[in-house]
Fold:
Amino acid sequence: MTGVVLHFLLGVAVVGGLLWGASRLAERWKTGVPRAVRDEPLRVVGRRNLAKGASVVRLSVEDRDLLLSATSKGVELLCELPKTPVPAVPPSTAVSFGPDGQPIRPTFAEALARSLPLGRRQP
Structure:
Protein backbone atom coordinates (compact mmCIF):
# COMPACT_ATOMS: atom_id res chain seq x y z
CA MET A 1 0.00 0.00 0.00
CA THR A 2 2.84 2.43 0.84
CA GLY A 3 4.44 1.80 -2.57
CA VAL A 4 1.23 2.73 -4.36
CA VAL A 5 0.93 6.01 -2.40
CA LEU A 6 4.58 6.92 -3.09
CA HIS A 7 4.13 6.05 -6.76
CA PHE A 8 1.00 8.26 -6.92
CA LEU A 9 2.71 11.20 -5.16
CA LEU A 10 5.75 10.94 -7.44
CA GLY A 11 3.47 10.92 -10.50
CA VAL A 12 1.59 13.99 -9.25
CA ALA A 13 4.89 15.81 -8.63
CA VAL A 14 6.18 14.99 -12.13
CA VAL A 15 2.94 16.06 -13.84
CA GLY A 16 2.81 19.26 -11.74
CA GLY A 17 6.41 20.08 -12.69
CA LEU A 18 5.68 19.52 -16.37
CA LEU A 19 2.61 21.77 -16.20
CA TRP A 20 4.57 24.50 -14.41
CA GLY A 21 7.39 24.34 -17.01
CA ALA A 22 4.90 24.41 -19.90
CA SER A 23 3.17 27.48 -18.45
CA ARG A 24 6.52 29.28 -18.18
CA LEU A 25 7.35 28.48 -21.80
CA ALA A 26 3.89 29.52 -22.98
CA GLU A 27 4.26 32.87 -21.21
CA ARG A 28 7.58 33.50 -22.93
CA TRP A 29 6.30 32.47 -26.37
CA LYS A 30 3.10 34.50 -26.09
CA THR A 31 4.91 37.85 -26.12
CA GLY A 32 8.39 36.86 -27.22
CA VAL A 33 9.92 38.31 -24.07
CA PRO A 34 9.73 37.42 -20.39
CA ARG A 35 7.25 39.32 -18.21
CA ALA A 36 9.98 41.30 -16.42
CA VAL A 37 11.30 42.74 -19.72
CA ARG A 38 7.95 43.78 -21.30
CA ASP A 39 7.78 47.20 -19.67
CA GLU A 40 11.27 48.30 -20.74
CA PRO A 41 11.53 51.70 -22.48
CA LEU A 42 13.27 50.05 -25.48
CA ARG A 43 10.95 48.82 -28.27
CA VAL A 44 11.59 47.53 -31.79
CA VAL A 45 9.21 49.48 -34.05
CA GLY A 46 10.28 47.90 -37.34
CA ARG A 47 12.94 45.71 -38.90
CA ARG A 48 13.96 45.08 -42.53
CA ASN A 49 16.45 42.46 -43.66
CA LEU A 50 18.81 43.80 -46.32
CA ALA A 51 20.97 40.73 -46.87
CA LYS A 52 22.00 37.59 -45.04
CA GLY A 53 23.22 38.79 -41.65
CA ALA A 54 22.43 42.48 -42.30
CA SER A 55 19.31 44.41 -41.36
CA VAL A 56 18.04 47.86 -40.50
CA VAL A 57 16.13 48.30 -37.25
CA ARG A 58 13.96 51.19 -36.04
CA LEU A 59 13.98 51.42 -32.22
CA SER A 60 11.90 53.54 -29.91
CA VAL A 61 13.93 54.47 -26.84
CA GLU A 62 11.99 56.55 -24.30
CA ASP A 63 11.65 59.91 -26.14
CA ARG A 64 13.76 59.10 -29.24
CA ASP A 65 13.47 56.93 -32.36
CA LEU A 66 16.72 55.51 -33.68
CA LEU A 67 17.58 53.91 -37.03
CA LEU A 68 20.26 51.23 -36.54
CA SER A 69 22.26 49.01 -38.86
CA ALA A 70 22.68 45.49 -37.47
CA THR A 71 25.21 43.14 -39.05
CA SER A 72 27.15 40.12 -37.91
CA LYS A 73 30.05 42.46 -37.08
CA GLY A 74 28.07 44.82 -34.84
CA VAL A 75 25.40 47.49 -34.52
CA GLU A 76 25.79 51.05 -35.80
CA LEU A 77 23.59 54.12 -35.37
CA LEU A 78 22.52 55.44 -38.78
CA CYS A 79 20.45 58.42 -37.64
CA GLU A 80 17.95 59.69 -35.11
CA LEU A 81 14.41 60.01 -36.47
CA PRO A 82 11.71 62.46 -35.39
CA LYS A 83 9.44 61.04 -32.70
CA THR A 84 6.29 62.32 -34.39
CA PRO A 85 5.07 59.90 -37.06
CA VAL A 86 5.69 61.02 -40.61
CA PRO A 87 2.51 60.68 -42.69
CA ALA A 88 2.69 58.06 -45.41
CA VAL A 89 3.29 59.60 -48.83
CA PRO A 90 1.82 57.93 -51.92
CA PRO A 91 4.51 56.92 -54.45
CA SER A 92 3.18 59.40 -57.03
CA THR A 93 3.85 62.37 -54.70
CA ALA A 94 6.98 61.02 -52.99
CA VAL A 95 9.28 63.35 -54.97
CA SER A 96 9.24 67.07 -54.24
CA PHE A 97 10.72 69.76 -56.46
CA GLY A 98 13.24 72.45 -55.63
CA PRO A 99 13.18 76.13 -56.69
CA ASP A 100 14.97 75.27 -59.95
CA GLY A 101 12.28 72.73 -60.91
CA GLN A 102 14.58 69.75 -60.44
CA PRO A 103 13.29 66.84 -58.34
CA ILE A 104 14.69 66.62 -54.83
CA ARG A 105 15.36 63.01 -53.91
CA PRO A 106 15.02 62.00 -50.26
CA THR A 107 18.11 60.76 -48.45
CA PHE A 108 18.48 57.03 -47.91
CA ALA A 109 17.61 57.38 -44.21
CA GLU A 110 14.42 59.33 -45.01
CA ALA A 111 13.30 56.82 -47.65
CA LEU A 112 14.01 53.91 -45.32
CA ALA A 113 12.19 55.59 -42.43
CA ARG A 114 9.11 55.97 -44.66
CA SER A 115 9.15 52.29 -45.53
CA LEU A 116 9.37 51.10 -41.91
CA PRO A 117 6.11 50.80 -39.93
CA LEU A 118 5.24 53.93 -37.99
CA GLY A 119 2.51 52.58 -35.71
CA ARG A 120 3.40 51.45 -32.22
CA ARG A 121 2.79 47.84 -31.29
CA GLN A 122 0.33 47.36 -28.48
CA PRO A 123 1.57 45.05 -25.68
